[in-house]
Amino acid sequence: MAAYAAYRMPATFEAVRSALEAFADAVPGWTPGSHVDVGGGTGAAAWAVSATWDGERPVTVLDWAEPALALGRELAAANPALGAVRWHRSRIGAELTLDDTDLVTVSYVLNELTALDRAALVDAAARAARSVVIVEPGTPDGYARVIEARDRLISAGFHVAAPCPHSAACPIAPGTDWCHFSARVSRSSLHRQVKGGSLAYEDEKFSYVAATRVPAAPAPARIVRRPQIRKGQVLLDLCETEPSLRRTTVTKRHGDLYRAARDTDWGDPWPPAADA
Predict the structure, then answer these.
(1) pLDDT confidence of residue 64
(2) What is the pTM of this model?
(3) Alpha helices in the chain (DSSP H)
(4) Can you spell out the DSSP letters for 97-138?
């Protein structure tokens, strides 16, 4: 279990933290007063929430694997903000019930469930939480599961805060592409040893949805591919409010906006807040 945590926990943490940061940008001034992490295992999402919002809060981590919970409890002892986390063994499926909470996170869990259990989990999260953040692998199948969950959350009365700039249907035609993002993961020497890699980093691809019942201000557009920087211009692929997908070209003639485009990254909102 310790080897698995060293292998996967850093990537899960960075992916969830990236999703939470985009969500936090859309709900400025809001801080979750409580958090339930479903299928949380060793607690990567609990660490990510703690890194996104200051302060302590009641946290419950649910998972079926007792060894993962035990390791998560041990690791959390090093973080004062996670000192009061409750680690509960629970079957994640159709019979799951959740206590009312401000935030539910579900990361890298839906891929392990049947379609029936996936629907039940999302519905349980929608009943219990004010906000729900779901993260899956950045693959076509992972994206499909996120879209399925997104649709259920919207049907339950939530609105999308990130990554989408809207709560309408995804403009990607099914089967033609998939929406995903990338998080840079720094590798420790142990991480490199466990994964058999030599680079000091790796890139974790992930798909996600952050939906909420609280007032939110989604980005006017989101960069959905790695920006292409060319001589005197930057090409940005955007998902926009309409909703629509569009490529825009920012050139030196755009001045400050061009300089901002050169510094922007895949997954960032557009335009930058100072220029919005």
Answers:
(1) 94
(2) 0.92
(3) 2-26, 44-52, 66-76, 115-128, 140-155, 189-195, 256-263
(4) ----EEEEEEES-GGGS-HHHHHHHHHHHHHHEEEEEEEEES
Distance (Å, whole) CA 203 – CA 185: 6
Average pLDDT, the chain: 92
Q: 267 - beta bridge partners?
A: none
pLDDT above 90: residue 191: no
Average pLDDT over residues 117-141: 98
Read off the tokens for 26.
């859309």
Residue 267 CB neighbour total at 10 angstroms: 22
| Distance, CA of 269 to CA of 276 (rounded, Å) | 10
Closest CA to 131 of 53, 204, 41, 238: 53
Cβ proximity of 214 and 29 under 8 Å: no
Is residue 60 within a helix (H) or strand (E), and if so which, with residue range? strand 59-63
> What pLDDT, on the 0 to 100 scale, is given for residue 160?
98
158: three-class secondary structure by DSSP:
coil
Structure tokens at 224: 């959905």
Exposed e or buried b per residue across 212-242, where buried means at least 16 C-beta atoms within 10 angstroms of its C-beta: beeebebbebbbbbebeeeeebbebbbbbee
Which residues are CB-contacts of 181 (< 8 A; sequence separation ≥ 6)?
Answer: 18, 138, 163, 205, 206, 207, 208, 224, 266, 267
Lowest mean pLDDT of 1-5, 27-31, 148-152, 164-168, name the range: 1-5
Check whether 19 has a pLDDT greater than 90.
yes
Domains of the chain: 2-212 (3.40.50.150), 221-275 (no CATH)
Cis omega (within 30 of 0) on the bond before 165? no
Angle at alpha carbon of residue 1, lines to 93 and 143, rounded to 5°: 45
Structure tokens at 216: 């939110």
Which pair of tokens denotes residue 160? 């999308």
